[in-house]
């Protein structure tokens, strides 16, 4: 894991109940093993390729939409993707953020 902490914010909207959920984590506040897991997952996600897709929206009902901001040092990645467009690595990362960051 690098020296810079990672800050991740996720806003999830849509779904059957159309309930908005916000979760955020900062690896500097996590136990070392959890921070390393988050860092490893962030390293596996190709944010540049996902950003190249632009803002994709799924018009099918009852689907989740994810708006994600990842800050690592001077780098910031912002994505807006429907659940149907999430690669496996990003799904795992979002799951960890939602579990560790709570639903605020």
Q: What separation lies between the terminal Cα atoms?
A: 27 Å
- Strand residues, percent: 25-35%
Shape: globular
Query: What count of structural domains?
Result: 1
Radius of gyration: 13 Å
Indicate the percent of residues in helices.
25-40%
Give the strand order, joined by hyphens, for the main sheet.
Answer: 2-1-3-4
What is the structural class?
A: alpha+beta
Can you offer a commentary on this structure?
It contains three helices and four strands; from the N terminus they run E-E-H-H-E-E-H. The model has no long low-confidence stretch (mean pLDDT 85). It has one domain (6-100). Strand 1 and strand 2 (21-26) form a beta hairpin. It has 104 residues and is α+β, with helices and mostly antiparallel strands. It starts with 5 loop residues before the first strand and ends with a helix. Helix 1 (32-44) runs antiparallel to helix 3. The relative contact order is 0.27. The protein has helices at residues 32-44, 47-51, 88-100, and strands at 6-14, 21-26, 64-72, 75-82. It has a four-stranded antiparallel β-sheet with strand order 2-1-3-4.
Supply the key terms.
104 residues, alpha+beta, 3 helices, 4 strands, globular
Short description:
With 104 residues, this protein is an alpha+beta fold. The protein has helices spanning 32-44, 47-51, 88-100, and strands at 6-14, 21-26, 64-72, 75-82.
Task: Tell me the layout of helices and strands.
Blueprint: E1 6-14, E2 21-26, H1 32-44, H2 47-51, E3 64-72, E4 75-82, H3 88-100
Antiparallel strand pairs: 1-2, 1-3, 3-4
Helix pairs in contact: 1-3
């Amino acid at each position: 894991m690098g020296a810079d902490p990672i800050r991740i914010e996720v806003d999830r909207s849509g779904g059957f109940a159309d309930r908005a959920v916000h979760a955020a984590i900062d690896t500097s506040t996590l136990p070392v093993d959890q921070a390393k897991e988050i860092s490893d997952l962030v390293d596996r996600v190709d944010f540049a390729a996902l950003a190249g897709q632009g803002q994709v929206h799924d018009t099918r009902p009852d689907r989740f939409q994810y708006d994600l901001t990842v800050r690592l040092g001077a780098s910031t990645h912002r994505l807006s993707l429907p659940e149907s467009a999430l690669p496996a690595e990003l799904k795992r990362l979002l799951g960890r953020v939602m579990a560790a960051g709570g639903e605020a």
